[in-house]
Design brief:
The protein is an alpha/beta fold and 489 residues long. Helix content is 38%, strand content 22%. α6 crosses α14, α9 crosses α10 and α13 runs parallel beside α15. The chain is elongated, with a radius of gyration of 25 Å.
Length: 489
């Protein structure tokens, strides 16, 4: 995460003299150094010096736009910085923007305060001037207020940075579709042009025959090396080694295809396998463990979202995984959702050492595929989905509490996770369905709703949140109003 940089731009003007500008720069350097030494700040903050007029502001912002390592900008007005000076620069800003409202000194120096101090430390009204121009220009931005050394402020800054990293990676993501979508399914469809305009995703399809040529070219030595990796990572709990070796062959081929094409996410479907002997199960799961995004049945929107969320969450405890709401448990007082998928549950969320097993799939008319099975952990999490509403993209996020399944399920041949959605199962389900939420989701123990709210603000897409305080009557009104507003944009 430290490879991503954020430019710290401090506002002032020439009115107060060179000594004030020197102090502004000195203070900005001290602040950036303090932040970079704090574990709450996951990325690198680079102080870019004081900006004093429209030209220096514009040049600095354009340089930030052109820096391939810069994931966002942080602005702070140490003194009063007339905001008309900021218009030419802000009109050109293409990176996520955090407006920090803080002050270098925490306390007023009661006995020594004079006009020199007042001229230097004017954030209380300098940041209000700066805030007005952001609001007047209707620019998406995050505002955080508080003393710069406070743990809460640093935690919130680091939190926002992860969303900005998601925006950075989103804008360079390529999604590979092996074959087409599952037939007759609506929610996995979507406007790929809109996705590239809003999210930056390049989503393109490739024939399964293209992948088959890669599969046929895999050597036995490459399969042996992949099998050794499997044994190192997982417990081999099957005697059908040939099925596992075929998954290894598929994975070597898919990785080579993805690496050569620069893809970060991919899809496939059991209805479009051609001469493939198995639907990729273990192969897909092992690739997801290493950070690739995946969407089953051709769901490229969830493949892309999974990849972005994994990169946002890098370094945080827990896991982030492709998931599907599969079946309900409706016992009074213990209502919950069992999430799983026929094969492709990401071992990133495993609470124990996964096992490689081989079971019949029942669909797809192919050989029994090898897959990973495992238990998942408990704790606070979110489930998120992305849907195409025809005239705009909508992200829906539900706060959940993951829990250990109430009893063993020895006949279920998949990895699985159980969660209790907030505010409760039935309100959550009604809200999710009213909002048009998909059956595919990304489950994350690492991220929260605010991460994705900030991401949606940066990418200019709709955000819908279902949480502990959700009430259906108010939710339906908010949903209707939001939908109308997005139609007018």
């Amino acid at each position: 995460m430290k490879a991503y940089t954020f430019w710290f731009i401090t506002g002032t003007q020439t009115l107060y003299g060179d000594e004030v500008i020197h102090q502004v720069n000195e203070h900005a350097n001290i602040m950036a150094a303090g932040w970079n030494d704090d574990a709450r700040i996951p990325c690198t903050i680079i102080p870019k010096g004081a900006v004093i007029d429209a030209q220096s502001i514009k040049e600095t912002i354009m340089a930030a736009n052109n820096d391939p390592a810069c994931a966002g900008v942080i602005t702070w007005m140490h003194t009063f910085s007339p905001s008309k000076m900021w218009i030419p620069g802000l009109k050109r800003l293409q990176k996520p923007w955090l407006h920090l409202n803080t002050q270098f000194n925490r306390d007023i120096p009661w006995g020594g305060i004079d006009m020199d101090f007042m001229n230097l430390n004017q954030s209380a009204h300098g940041d209000r001037e700066h805030g007005f121009i952001g609001a007047r220009m209707r620019m998406p931005r995050k505002v955080i207020s508080g003393f710069w050394q406070d743990d809460t402020v640093k935690a919130r800054m680091g939190h926002w940075m992860r969303s900005a990293v998601g925006a950075y990676e989103s804008n360079r993501l390529k999604v590979c579709r092996f074959g087409d979508n599952m037939r007759d399914v609506a929610v996995t469809e979507g406007n790929k042009v809109e996705a590239e305009i809003k999210l930056g995703w390049s989503v393109n399809g490739y024939g399964v025959g293209d992948l088959l040529r890669y599969i046929d070219a895999v050597s036995e030595a490459e399969i042996d090396a992949k099998m050794e990796e499997y044994r190192m990572r997982y417990d081999m709990a099957t005697e059908n080694i040939e099925a596992v070796r075929y998954q290894a062959r598929e994975e070597v081929a898919m990785r080579r295809f993805m690496e050569e094409g620069g893809f970060g996410a991919f899809t496939n479907t059991f209805q479009d396998l051609q001469q493939m002997r198995q639907l990729p199960g273990l192969a897909t799961q092992n690739m997801m463990r290493d950070g690739y995004g995946f969407g089953a049945e051709g769901d490229w929107k969830l493949a892309g979202l999974g990849r972005v969320m994994k990169l946002m969450a890098k370094g945080l405890p827990g896991g982030t995984a492709f998931m599907e709401d599969y079946t309900y448990h409706m016992e009074p007082g213990r209502e919950a959702i069992l999430g799983a998928h026929m094969l492709e549950v990401d071992p990133d969320i495993a609470a124990d050492r996964p096992k490689i097993e081989v079971y019949p799939l029942g669909i797809g008319d192919r050989e029994d595929p090898a897959r990973l099975t495992f238990q998942t952990g408990s704790g606070k999490a979110i489930v998120a989905t992305l849907v195409d509403m025809g005239d705009h993209l909508r992200m829906i996020v539900n706060d959940v509490e993951a829990c250990t399944p109430y009893e063993d399920m020895p006949k279920l041949p998949t990895a699985r996770v159980m969660w209790k959605p907030y505010p409760n199962l039935y309100t959550s389900a009604e809200a999710w369905i009213q909002a048009g939420g998909a059956h595919h989701t990304i489950l994350s123990y690492q991220l929260d709703a605010e991460h994705l709210r900030d991401f949606c603000t940066m990418m200019d897409i709709e955000f819908v949140h279902i949480g502990a305080d959700t009430k259906m009557e108010a939710f339906e009104k908010e949903l209707l109003l939001s939908d109308m507003l997005w139609k007018l944009r």
